[in-house]
Write a structure and sequence with these properties.
The chain is mainly beta. It has one domain: 6 Propeller (Neuraminidase), CATH 2.120.10.30. The strands form seven sheets. Strands 1, 2, 21, 22, 23 and 24 form a six-stranded mixed sheet that branches. It has a five-stranded mixed sheet with strand order 3-28-27-26-25, with no helix packed on it. The chain is globular. The protein starts with a helix and ends with a strand.
């Protein structure tokens, strides 16, 4: 019996274990990324699946698997890595503290007890948007709350949202970590048959028809949001939605918003994808560069993690974020499932050099984590990324020094989108 089969048996044996609601959105995608092996029938089932893998990091037998050799790239010649030699950081047992205003000091504060109505007084700019996790039998998701630049909260009362739904009848809360526009004025939410954009600075609502099971959103610019629509097993379609004109145009690029990293409006769209699970249909970890009007990628670079072996990434999940002004820097950060010298199936966060594909930095989050527990939310500065974890809360990881500091201590109540700059 292989390690992956053993992990699945452990998941099945724990299938009745409950989970806090904050895991729901993190696992909404992860529960489908492995060829939809689990057919879920509702938001409660999504949450249950997220929790069953607590502590299922599987000991490796016979040593770690060798990392695949890098293949030649069609991109430009690589240049020097910006962070020095690749290295692995460990999540400390007791991280230090750091203040990043106006983010709250505790995760519990992201469920505001006192919040004005957005219709009564809009916000200046959105710093954070939170959607508390819904109860098991809820018929509607919880409302959105927006954190203003002055530290106050506003409840989004100008739109009544529904759960997102895919072709397999899986449901999830609609907010995504990539919902806030670059100028921090707009929040985009995918809905079945439409895309909703709320201007949190005016409380205006804009609806664009888009038939189908729309799930993922990511801003291309302040005017355009990319939306991925689920169309059945292994099938997705990506659209560019002009929320002002209320139009949606399918893009030629064969990418999915599940995996994309959007740069400035006139720049390329990057896609970080692939799996190394040893199963039929797996594909190498790769960084692809797209122009939206072209069907094939214009550049493709294998993700090279040989310098970190026997540590590595086996599969990605959750948002991928690029650093730098206008998200045009040299680094992309994304969470995933990885391996250490002793275990496979460990939760990790990795930094990839956009120019070379080198796996530049890896944060080993350690054992006994929920599956899909953690994700990057925003870059604080050129070398510091804000992460959400199910145990510590919001933490800042300095990818140049390896230091990890707690910003908002304790579990957050649901899905959160952060926009600091």
């Amino acid at each position: 019996m292989g390690t992956r089969e053993l992990a699945e048996l452990l998941e099945q044996a724990s299938a009745d274990v409950g989970a806090p609601a904050l895991a729901e959105a993190a696992w909404a995608r992860a529960g489908r990324v492995r060829r939809r092996r689990r057919i879920l029938t509702g938001a409660a089932a999504v949450v249950a699946v997220c929790a069953v893998t607590v502590g299922v990091a599987v000991p490796l037998r016979g040593g770690p698997r060798p990392h695949p050799a890098a293949t030649p790239t069609s991109g430009p010649a690589p240049s020097a890595a910006p962070l020095g030699p690749p290295r692995v950081d460990q999540m400390p047992q007791q991280p230090g503290r750091r203040t990043i205003g106006p983010l709250p000091a505790t995760g519990a504060a992201f469920r505001p007890a006192e919040a004005r109505m957005l219709s009564q007084r809009p916000v200046r700019r959105a710093v954070a948007v939170v959607e508390p996790g819904s109860a098991e039998n809820a018929t509607r998701p919880e409302p959105l709350y927006v954190l203003d630049t002055d530290g106050s909260w506003a409840r989004v009362d100008v739109v009544d949202l529904a759960f997102t739904r895919d072709s397999g009848n899986n449901t999830a809360d609609p907010l995504r970590p990539t919902a806030v526009s670059p100028d921090r004025r707009l929040v985009a939410v995918a809905q079945t048959d439409e895309v909703v954009v709320v201007d949190v600075t005016t409380a205006a609502v804009y609806r664009t028809p888009l038939p189908g099971f729309n799930e993922q959103v990511m801003w291309r610019s302040d005017d355009t949001v990319l939306v991925t629509r689920d169309a059945g097993e292994q099938a997705t379609a990506t659209f560019a939605v002009d929320w002002r004109a209320r139009t949606a145009t399918r893009v030629a690029a064969g990418l999915s918003v599940w995996n994309t990293v959007v740069s400035r409006p006139d720049g390329p769209v990057l896609e970080l994808r692939g799996t190394l699970g040893g199963e039929a249909g797996d594909e190498p970890l790769v960084l692809k560069e797209w122009q939206l009007d072209r069907a094939a990628p214009v550049r493709e670079v294998p993700v090279d993690g040989r310098a970190l072996a026997p540590y590595g990434v086996d599969e990605w999940y959750g948002p991928a974020l690029r650093n730098g002004p206008d998200a045009a820097g040299d680094l992309v950060v994304r969470a995933g499932w990885g391996r250490t010298p002793a275990y496979q199936g460990i939760e990790v966060v990795a930094v990839v050099d956009v120019r070379t594909g080198v796996l530049q930095r890896l944060l080993d989050l350690g054992r006994d984590r929920w599956k899909g527990c953690c994700q990057p939310l925003d870059w604080v500065d050129e070398r510091t990324v804000l992460l959400r974890t199910e145990r510590e809360g919001l933490v800042a990881w300095d990818v140049s020094t390896g230091a990890v500091s707690v910003v908002s201590a304790g579990q957050l109540p649901g899905t959160v989108a952060i926009a600091l700059r």
